[in-house]
Amino acid sequence: MHYVYILKSLKDAKLYIGATSDLVKRLKMHNDQKVFSTQSRAPLKLVYYEAYLAKDDAFNREKSFKKYGQGLRRLKERLKSSLMV
Fold it and tell me: 41 by DSSP, 3-state: which?
């Protein structure tokens, strides 16, 4: 399985979007401050993920969230209550 995930920083409430084949391990790496792009924003919590069978599908979805704001904007609208917590 391959995953696209969104983390929310409990420090500054900003979101981080990523993709991985091992979601549990990657979340631990983020919270152990072993990922450069999020190390100053830990702790982080998982607020959303999608699972894919093909790696390309997951990484293309991650790219679409990062490159095209409309997909992420719609997801934020859909997860409004979850992102407030």
Answer: helix
**Whole-model pTM?**
0.89
Give one DSSP letter per residue of 46-84, joined into a string. EEEEEEESSHHHHHHHHHHHHH-HHHHHHHHHHTHHHHH
Tens place of pLDDT per residue across the chain (85 aa): 999 999 999 999 899 999 999 999 999 999 999 999 999 999 999 999 999 999 999 999 999 888 877 788 888 888 888 887 6
Residue showing tokens 């924003």? 41
For residue 2, give the amino acid letter. H
